[in-house]
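Table S7 (text form). Paired inputs.
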Amino acid sequence: MIKAIIIDDEEDAREGLKLTIEKSCPKVQIMALCETPEIGIEKINALRPELVFLDVQMPRLSGFDLLERFETINFEVIFTTAFDKYAIKAIKFSALDYLLKPVDVDELVEAVLKIKEKQKNKTAHFKSLLSNVKYNSENQRRLAIPSENEIILQKTADIVYCEADGNYTILHLADDKKLTVAKTLKEFENILPESDFCRIHHSTLVNLAHVTKYVKGEGGYVMVSGRRHLDVSRRKKDNLMQALKKI
């Protein structure tokens, strides 16, 4: 059995999720229902659950604030949220699970099955998540990138462009260094602000602050810092034009 607790300030949401879990996930034992983050912290410390269903938006403390109270996270988390698009981007980027309210049964079952695939470094993933939530909500300019044994805090201003490499992305930096990350280009496009970064090709996401010139053509190309030129696809040309007008 997987020992679990539910933390959500809405009674209907707590009770409804509990009933759905009992019907659809017989290997999950709900040990407590917590109506506030403070009670949730107490129950986590007292009951030592293996899994926490955690609401993102709650009074006084958010689900993310709750996680920051733990130096080491020894439990899995499935976030539940109604509409926080920035939180969802950060959760997905950090390779963690979430469920949109109202909870879909099939998605719930799939998320619980993933719990059996333990992450090697949960604490690093959660620290990455919390950094990226702050980045999205407070417009900070560092991106927390999780790897197997560490988190790289990369200044977004120093990312010249991102280049797709299969399921990986190569970050080309202002100091001519490269950073290869086990994330797709689409994942970077989703979390980096549209006001700063523009998709100019199926394999290229460019930092507009580093664009020094656009040379017209069928698709054309842009010159970026370091005198490098990056092709612009015909399909992405209008996208680039709109982005340049906003600078």
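Next pair, protein 2 of 2.
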Amino acid sequence: MTLRYALPIMLALTSPASAVELDSLTDAERAAFRAEVRAYLLENPEVLQEAIGVLQQREQQAQTVSDSQLIADYSEELFNDRHSFVGGNPAGDITIVEFLDYRCGYCKRAFPEIESLIAADANIRFVVKEYPILGEQSVLASRFAVATLLVAGDDAYKAVHDTLMEFRGDINQASMTRLAEVLNLDATAIIEQMDSDEVTAIISANRELGQKMQISGTPTFVVEDQLVRGYVPLDVMKQFVAELRE
């Protein structure tokens, strides 16, 4: 079997009919075909690179479609759950949802860039999903933030959120009490609220939503109908927003 015949069969491997064509070969023809393909690929390794590129592109396209469907399926929980903090412009034309953990280094890295994006764009609605996945200190921080939102409202939550995103020490009840006092909040009321059923229900709902959205790491962003897994630079986030507006 010459390369003239091997290549069409190699290309046919991408179609369902390929298995039938290979089955029609004799053992000797199949061995010759394999040897011919191997020799061709060794002489032309760029073909493998091209094929891998095509495969990755197809997988990315399939993932994008899957992510868009997940967002559509759980849009109400993502964008309008009535328990998550909403910052930026609540009436903005673009909504960004962030699943975050206060102990996550990449979340901390993304924090000033998201703040810059919101400050520079008055039409972004920003929703925070407390998603503690990095241990007990993460859970404690999220409980404190959610309790602050319930006890003292949006402005107090934002102050706590911003401070926790920049906080580098151990997170424990003593440090959270000091934080509340520094921010002139009712530390006693917030600490008491932290272990309430309401706080537990909110964090559990976020975890359940994250699992349904197949979110395994932080930060994860939902930008309208796009799911962005992991940290992205400010310029890339600006590009997402600009493309959505187009």
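The longest helix spans residues 46-73.
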